[in-house]
Design brief:
Layout: H1 17-23, E1 30-36, E2 41-48, E3 53-62, E4 67-74, E5 81-90, E6 95-102, E7 107-116, E8 121-130, E9 135-144, E10 150-159, E11 164-173, E12 180-190, E13 196-205, E14 210-219, H2 223-231, H3 236-249, H4 255-265
Parallel strand pairs: 1-3, 2-4, 3-5, 4-6, 5-7, 6-8, 7-9, 8-10, 9-11, 10-12, 11-13, 12-14
């Protein structure tokens, strides 16, 4: 990024631009790369936990037939602003899975710009948990530019108090992206009437032999489910915690990340 984003840019529509303006332009984005050689399998975990502005652009390349599993926890301090961009190229017959837990910073944004080769596979499991005045978001742009690629994105958002949680996911299927199989499942849970959740899955398709689906819902905890648990002797706080944990379980985060999410839901940090 070289210029301060504005709300005219669709993928910044719900962002906390006021917080971003306070730190802009303290420094250019740091750059680094993650390379997976052809046929290689790598699992990595990253924790974004700065106290100021963390602004990185990470180039990720998964070579032909390679496999990458990257787990990302955005857990910046309450004063932090985090704008993390991963530019991901998944070569032919390669596989990449990203797991994202976005819980920190006053404004925390994790963005993925993914390009898929022929018969490549991409998976995303994302969980956004916000409270207080936080603005947290996961933004993805997924390019199916070659035939036979598959993508699956599952994102769950839970927001309380006056927090805002957003997922913006754009799947673009080029003319050469025949036999694309793409799906997005986006659900958000409001724990407070003053919280805000934005869910915007989007499809842009120029091929004619594809299977693409997306769905988005925003709601509150099921009153009937809460009543049922209460009738079985489960207290209100525990019932709320159990239902919320089951809700985020759909994202299939790794165990350590899920445990951290549960700790947050039960009042931890």
């Amino acid at each position: 990024m070289t210029a301060l984003p504005t709300r005219r840019e669709e993928d910044w529509r719900y962002s906390d631009l006021k917080s971003l303006a306070e730190v802009w332009p303290e420094g250019a984005a740091a750059a680094r790369s993650i390379d997976v050689a052809a046929g290689q399998t790598i699992a990595l975990a990253e924790r974004l936990a700065g106290a100021d502005w963390q602004n990185e652009q990470v180039a990720v390349i998964v070579g032909t037939g390679g496999k990458l599993h990257l787990s990302i926890v955005q857990a910046g301090a309450a004063s932090a602003v985090t704008t993390q961009l991963y530019t991901v190229t998944v070569a032919d017959d390669a596989h990449a899975r990203f797991d994202i837990l976005n819980i920190g910073s006053r404004f925390g944004r994790v963005a993925l710009d993914v390009t898929l080769g022929a018969c490549a596979t991409f998976e995303l499991g994302g969980v956004i948990l916000g409270r207080g005045q936080q603005t947290l978001e996961i933004v993805t742009t997924l390019g199916h530019v070659a035939p036979g690629a598959t993508s699956r994105q599952t994102v769950r958002t839970v927001v309380d108090d006056r927090a805002t949680g957003s997922f913006l996911g754009k799947v673009m299927v080029a003319r050469d992206g025949q036999q694309t199989d793409a799906a997005q499942s986006v659900k958000a849970l409001l724990l407070s009437r003053s919280a805000t959740a934005n869910a915007k899955p989007e499809l842009e398709i120029f091929a004619d032999d594809v299977k693409c689906a997306h769905g988005a819902t925003v709601g509150e905890l099921d009153a009937q489910a809460l009543f049922y648990l209460a009738s079985r002797g489960v207290g209100p706080a525990e019932a709320k915690a159990l239902l919320t944990e089951a809700f985020i379980g759909d994202a299939a985060l790794p165990e350590a990340m899920f445990d951290e999410a549960v700790a947050w839901l039960r009042g931890g940090t």
